[in-house]
Specification:
heterodimer, A: about 280 residues, 12 helices, about 75% helix, about 0% strand, B: about 425 residues, alpha/beta, Rossmann fold, Coagulation Factor XIII, Chain A, domain 1, seven-stranded mixed sheet, about 25% helix, globular
């Protein structure tokens, strides 16, 4: 795009043009997204004996630990078998957290590609999301096993599951784009993120319902989209109910707005990456 | 022909020296600075410099365009602008058609993946479809000549093998416009030759080629037209032969390596001419040449002889060296303030390449150099009859066959 001979376009028109260009690029380079995801998946489990087993094993270990704490040491009533509650929460949380971690460094670890070859840079963070999504899918097999073990049968509400996954992926992807870009310009982001993500996890309904915290940090906790998303999974899978329309609706709207915003910002900053990485 | 395939229109590109604010600590001061005074894009702030200044050129469809120039001239920056990796500060550039770019052949390779896996990855990075790569996989592997190691992780490859595989993927792209940046420097001679041949085929098939290289022979062999860049500016745009002359003259630096601080002798001027008296830079093998030089003398020098050395610039291969003493001439002496004129006739029995001539003056009895002038003249030999070598031995090959009487056992074919 030239800087000489700018044609005046309104902000709305520019946005529409950018979105169109972003979608076209993703269509043109879908092959590369697939290959990059494949590469990262192969790399992740190359020279490991357990391979995809790790995707189940890690949350399982945490589940066992927290199950002991919250059933023996400090019993907690969560309205369903605690291991099921914790595993579901941990698995969903891990999908986002690992995508964030992986996406954040995706541009900086691929410096030679960023400075030597042209293709849409979104490929890096988006493939990080897809890699984590595959792990998430593998880990879900253990959820099914746990549900069979605890004799929890899902009801018709299961049809809402794809919607929850979609919102979850959109929210995760938008932060991935933002983090990858931020870390490229400022390497501090990586360290700040590590601190924040720990706090964030304990402010989310991963291991316990956050309703008990809500008096003190009410608004902040309600605005955290991760809680309605994780609660959404539990509702449609185990409780046989639909997610709470208000809180989930807010989370879904936020996810869509965030995704568009982050992607457009990423797209507009993209041409500076090679010079600043 | 219609629209040109590559357009570069009054492009300026600004770069920053050193690190930009790399951490948040530096962010806020710079944000404040940016808010207080916004400078127009035409001015240079502290630490900034122009990597390209007002560069314009075009390449039409099916043309092979070479870009030469010293390091830091802006050659690679131009290619990065054309491939959209960078964006111009001012001006604009545009490419019509599907772009294939080889800025670094093995950029997309991941060390932990096998050669085969990397071919698919690299292909996708260069914009090939999976089916397209799968269809041409055998061809790609054959071309690289490393089929035996295709399922070995790339981290166990030598750098030459990586380059071979990388270039093979690039060679099987089917682009409209191909950008090549100094990729022939890797790989052995026969592979380089193969790559050149491949590029020539591409150009014949109508691909537009923009070729950046320090390998002047390759540029001369491939491109009819060439650009010479220097310090971010376009110095010349025209026929390759003239471009090489411009480049070599611009690059010619005469350095003096003497034993003392004060020079004893200094080269005033030197020129290489053909027999008919034309100053020349590009020659055919066996051309009769004459090197003339004028040398100023600052001391009273006794018993010295004059020496000439010929080197190939690419690898500084020492091709020839002699002195007036070795040729049976008497030692000379001169007074301070005198001017010495040297004239050396020789025949360039050389093969394709870029060569340079060094002159020296030394006192063989005391074993002391009074002057050592590197690269007082240089020239390019152009020919297409050899594939490697330095000396043109002018072979004439005759072949004939007759029926063998012995029971000849065919050796196993080498894969």
């Amino acid at each position: 795009m030239s800087t000489v001979g700018w044609v005046y376009r309104s902000a709305g028109q520019r946005l529409a043009d950018d979105v169109r260009e972003m979608l076209r690029e993703q269509r043109d380079y879908r092959e590369l997204l697939y290959q990059m995801t494949r590469r990262d998946l192969m790399l992740r489990y190359k020279q490991t004996v357990m391979g995809f087993g790790w995707a189940i094993f890690m949350p399982l270990v945490n589940t066992v630990v927290f199950s002991i704490i919250f059933t023996r040491v400090a019993p907690l009533d969560v309205g369903m078998p605690y291991p099921l509650f914790a595993f579901c929460g941990l698995l969903a949380w891990n999908f986002s957290a690992s995508a964030f971690r992986f996406a954040m460094i995706s541009l900086t670890t691929n410096t030679s590609l960023v400075t030597k070859v042209y293709f849409p840079r979104e490929i890096f963070p988006l493939s990080a999301v897809l890699v984590s999504l595959v792990d998430f899918a593998v880990g879900s097999l253990a959820v099914i096993a746990l549900m069979v073990y605890y004799r929890v049968t899902p009801t018709w509400t299961l049809v809402a599951l794809p919607v929850i996954v979609l919102v979850h992926v959109m929210f995760t992807a938008s932060l991935c784009l933002l983090l990858a870009m931020a870390n490229l310009f400022y390497r501090d982001v990586k360290y700040i993120f590590e601190v924040l993500v720990t706090v964030w996890m304990f402010a989310t309904a991963v291991l316990y319902p956050v309703a008990s915290l809500s008096n003190r940090f009410g608004l902040l906790l309600q605005l955290n989209p991760m809680t309605p998303i994780i609660e959404g999974y539990r509702s449609v899978l185990m409780r046989g109910s639909l997610p709470d329309p208000l809180s989930f609706g807010v989370a879904a709207t936020m996810s869509v707005v965030l995704l568009v915003t982050c992607w457009v910002v990423f797209h507009r900053a993209e041409f500076q990456f090679a010079e600043n990485v | 022909m219609g629209e040109p395939a590559v357009i570069f229109d009054r492009v300026w590109k600004k770069f920053r020296r050193g690190e930009r604010h790399d951490s948040l600590r530096d962010l806020f001061p710079s944000l404040v600075r940016r808010m207080v005074g916004r400078q127009p894009s035409g001015d240079l702030a502290d630490q900034e410099f122009w990597a390209l200044q007002d560069v314009s050129f075009e390449a039409s469809r099916g043309e092979a365009l070479g870009i030469i120039g010293p390091n830091g001239a802006g050659k690679s920056t131009s290619l990065k602008l054309l491939t959209k990796i960078l964006r111009p500060t001012r001006g604009h550039c545009h490419v019509n058609g599907r772009v294939g770019a080889v800025i670094e052949v093995a950029a997309g390779f991941h060390p932990d993946l096998t050669g085969r896996e990397n071919v698919f990855l690299q292909g996708a990075i260069m914009g090939m479809k999976r089916t397209e790569i799968a269809r041409r996989l055998d061809e790609i592997v054959d071309f690289s000549g490393i089929s035996a190691f295709i399922d070995t992780p790339v981290k166990r490859y030598s750098s030459g093998m990586q380059a071979r595989l990388g270039f093979s993927v690039a060679a099987h792209l089917e682009p409209d416009v191909l950008f090549i940046d100094e990729v022939l420097s890797v790989g052995d001679m026969s592979f380089q030759q193969k790559c050149l041949e491949r590029m020539r085929e591409n150009v014949r098939a109508g691909v537009t080629l923009v070729f950046v290289s320090h390998n002047l022979q390759a540029v001369a062999a491939l491109c009819k037209r060439a650009l010479v860049c220097g310090r971010g500016r376009l110095l010349f745009d025209g026929p390759t032969e003239q471009a090489l002359t411009v480049y070599l003259q611009a690059a010619q630096t005469t350095s003096t390596r003497g034993g003392t601080d004060r020079p004893h002798f200094r080269v005033l001027n030197a020129a290489l001419k053909t027999r008919d008296g034309r100053v020349c830079h590009t020659l055919r093998p066996h051309t009769e040449c004459q090197l003339t030089a004028q040398i100023e003398c600052f001391i009273d020098a006794e018993d010295y002889c004059v020496g000439i050395e010929l080197e190939r610039t690419r690898d500084l291969l020492y091709c020839y060296g002699t002195t007036s003493e070795e040729l049976g001439m008497p030692l000379r002496f001169s007074r301070s303030g005198e001017r010495l004129t040297i004239s050396i006739d020789f025949a360039a029995h050389l093969t394709r390449g870029h060569y340079r001539i060094n002159l020296n003056i030394r006192q063989p009895r005391v074993g002391r150099f009074l002057l050592f002038a590197e690269s007082v003249a240089d020239f390019v030999i152009e020919e297409h009859e050899t594939y490697d070598g330095v000396v043109d031995i002018e072979p004439r090959i005759a072949l004939s066959t007759e029926t063998a009487k012995t029971n000849y056992v065919q050796p196993a074919t080498i894969a």
